[in-house]
């Protein structure tokens, strides 16, 4: 589980960094942190510039969609092993199958976003509405459920990933005075990267001497 947590943690950090970079492409130079008004900032808050799975009508901004798509692909890889990484043990078969299904849904969204960024026009997901429903609704539910059965650093990671999810973002920090709040994708990316760091901390663990004093016994976190 230590190796699983370390690898998953670094993948989440990469995912968060890529999403932050995508947000930088959209808002840098037009909107400062906390800025919501302005001749350059206001127009960018229109939904036609959204790049997390672009939808028509859409106008690309730099490489934002490509970077966001790569972020989602990294997240998809992490989602597959999240139940094991967070719980610290082999998950139930049903949970493992659900995690794989959710990972495929997120990967589908990521590929559609990358393809849209490369083509400069909206490219649909292969799973249609099913991929969106799994990633938008089911993934946060799984993360919340995992948060209930974890503690310590893994609990912090599960909470942060829940806060980074599209469902929470859509009803909280992604809502602005116009269509979208400036830098909301960067906020999501920061939560994701922080969750990855929490998993790396969990992988470090704490060791204490065994009763015989001959060998250390790992303590789960």
Which key phrases capture this entry?
221 residues, mainly alpha, two-stranded antiparallel ribbon, 2 strands, globular, transmembrane helix, signal, membrane
- The string of secondary-structure elements, in order, is HHHHHHHHEE
Radius of gyration computed on alpha carbons: 19 Å
Gap between N and C termini: 11 Å
Strand order of the largest sheet: 1-2
Overview of the molecule:
With 221 residues, the chain is mainly alpha-helical. 64% of the residues lie in helices and 4% in strands. The protein contains eight helices and two strands. Strands 1-2 form a two-stranded antiparallel ribbon. The model is unreliable at 206-217 (pLDDT under 50).
Task: Give the helices and strands, then pairings.
Blueprint: H1 2-27, H2 41-44, H3 64-87, H4 93-119, H5 129-148, H6 152-164, H7 166-171, H8 184-204, E1 206-209, E2 216-219
Antiparallel strand pairs: 1-2
Helix pairs in contact: 1-3, 1-8, 3-4, 4-5, 5-6, 6-8
Could you give a quick summary of the protein structure above?
This protein has 221 residues and is mainly alpha-helical. Helices cover 64% and strands 4% of the residues. This is DUF998 domain-containing protein.
């Amino acid at each position: 589980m230590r190796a699983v947590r370390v690898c998953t943690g670094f993948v989440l950090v990469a995912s968060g960094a890529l999403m932050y970079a995508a947000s930088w492409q959209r808002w840098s130079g037009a909107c400062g942190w906390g800025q919501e008004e302005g001749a350059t900032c206001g127009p960018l808050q229109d939904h036609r510039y959204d790049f997390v799975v672009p939808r028509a009508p859409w106008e690309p901004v730099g490489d934002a969609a490509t970077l966001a798509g790569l972020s989602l692909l990294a997240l998809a890889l992490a989602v597959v092993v999240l139940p094991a990484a967070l719980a610290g043990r082999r998950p139930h078969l049903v949970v493992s199958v659900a995690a794989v299904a959710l990972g495929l849904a997120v990967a589908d969204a990521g590929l559609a976003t990358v393809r849209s960024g490369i083509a400069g026009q909206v490219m649909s997901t292969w799973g249609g509405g099913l991929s969106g429903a799994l990633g938008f609704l089911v993934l946060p539910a799984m993360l919340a459920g995992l948060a209930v059965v974890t503690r310590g650093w893994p609990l912090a990671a599960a909470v942060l990933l829940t806060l980074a999810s599209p469902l929470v973002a859509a009803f909280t920090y992604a809502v602005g005075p116009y269509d979208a709040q400036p830098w909301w994708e960067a906020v999501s990316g920061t939560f994701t990267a922080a969750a990855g760091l929490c998993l790396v901390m969990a992988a470090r663990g704490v060791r204490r001497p065994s009763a015989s004093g001959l060998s250390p016994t790992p303590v789960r976190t």
